[in-house]
Amino acid sequence: MERTFLMIKPDGVQRGLVGEVIRRFEAKGFTLVGLKLMSVSKELAEQHYDVHRDKPFFKGLVDFITSSPVVAMVWEGDGVVAGARTVIGATNPLTADPGTIRGDFGLNIGRNLIHGSDAVETANREINLWFSESELVNWTPAM
Ligand code: CMP
C-alpha cells in the first residue's frame, strides 16, 4: 500500500491547527500509520530539504523548521502521495484553491503550514529519514 510523509510545520502547530489538518486526511479516508510531535535538528532539516540547498530561501526554511515543534506523520492509502497533495493545495497559499489546507489557512509561501512528499520515491526517502520501522504501525481499518 502506498505511503506518504506529511509534516505539520511550526506555523500549523503554533496556530493550533494540528487537529484540523489531521481531520482532513482522516475524512478523506487515508490511514494514519505514524505520528510524532518533535523538535527538528538542523541536520535533519538540512537533509530533508537537501534538494533546496542552493535556493536563496534555504537558510530561512531550515531556521523556521527548527524554530519550534512540528508534527511528523506517515499516511497510507491508494494514491495517497498525489491525493494528500490535492488536500494540501498549491505551495503558495496565495494561489492555493479555497478548500485546500493551504488555501484555507496558509499565510504565505514560507508559512504554508504543511509539507507533503511530491512523489512516491520522495515519500520513501522522507519516511526513512523521519521514522524508524518500529515507529510505524501496520494496520488496516475495519471499514
Ligand atoms: P514545502 O512543501 O515544505 O517544500 C519546500 C518549502 O520551501 C515549501 O514548502 C515552502 O514553504 C518553501 N518555499 C518554496 N519556495 C519558497 C520561496 N520562494 N520563498 C520562501 N520559501 C519557499
TrEMBL record:
Q: Please indicate which superkingdom the organism of origin belongs to.
A: Bacteria
Question: Gene3D superfamilies given for it?
Answer: Nucleoside diphosphate kinase-like domain
Which reaction is catalysed here?
a 2'-deoxyribonucleoside 5'-diphosphate + ATP = a 2'-deoxyribonucleoside 5'-triphosphate + ADP; a ribonucleoside 5'-diphosphate + ATP = a ribonucleoside 5'-triphosphate + ADP; dZDP + ATP = dZTP + ADP
Q: Where in the cell is it found?
A: Cytoplasm
Residues the record marks as active site: 115
| Coiled-coil boundaries | none
Required co-factors: Mg(2+)
Identify the residues that the record assigns to the Nucleoside diphosphate kinase-like domain, covering every copy.
Answer: 1-138
Task of the protein: Major role in the synthesis of nucleoside triphosphates other than ATP. The ATP gamma phosphate is transferred to the NDP beta phosphate via a ping-pong mechanism, using a phosphorylated active-site intermediate.
Which family does the similarity line name? Answer: Belongs to the NDK family.
**Partners and quaternary state?**
Homotetramer.
- In Swiss-Prot or TrEMBL terms, this protein is called Nucleoside diphosphate kinase
Species, as recorded: Phormidium yuhuli AB48
Lineage of the species this protein comes from: Bacteria, Bacillati, Cyanobacteriota, Cyanophyceae, Oscillatoriophycideae
